[in-house]
Write a structure and sequence with these properties.
The chain is mainly alpha-helical and 98 residues long. The protein has 4 helices and 2 strands; from the N terminus they run αααββα. The chain has helices at 6-18, 21-28, 32-46, 62-89, and strands at residues 51-54, 57-60. It has a two-stranded antiparallel sheet with strand order 1-2. A hairpin with a 2-residue loop joins β1 and β2 (57-60). α1 crosses α3 (32-46) and α2 (21-28) packs across α3.
Length: 98
């Protein structure tokens, strides 16, 4: 299964950091329902649970920890590459054929 969504990875990162969908929703300016839906959809697509849920508390599963560790590096690399590209094109006007 190929991973398809940068947004769901960012949401997963926020929930993993905060261990709370409510806190992640606040940080990302999204509703708790939206966060919950995205996490459930991600788990469904991956075919395994990322979090153990008990009494409104979240804890990463072993698989969740593995994915989170990898995702931290990937997100940092993507963000750094975007910044590098932005600096390269800073001040340039890019014309498109519209």
């Amino acid at each position: 299964m190929k991973f398809r969504s940068y947004d769901s990875l960012k949401i997963f990162d926020a929930v993993a950091r905060k261990q709370s969908m409510t806190a992640a929703a606040h940080d990302l300016n999204l509703s708790k329902g939206s966060i919950s839906y995205q996490i459930n959809k991600l788990e469904e697509n991956l075919g395994f649970a990322l979090f153990e849920r008990s009494n409104a508390r979240l804890q990463l599963t072993e698989n969740g920890r593995r994915i989170w560790n990898v995702s931290l590096n990937a997100l940092q690399q993507i963000d750094q590459e975007i910044e590098d590209i932005d600096r390269t094109y800073e001040g340039l006007i890019i014309e498109t054929d519209s």
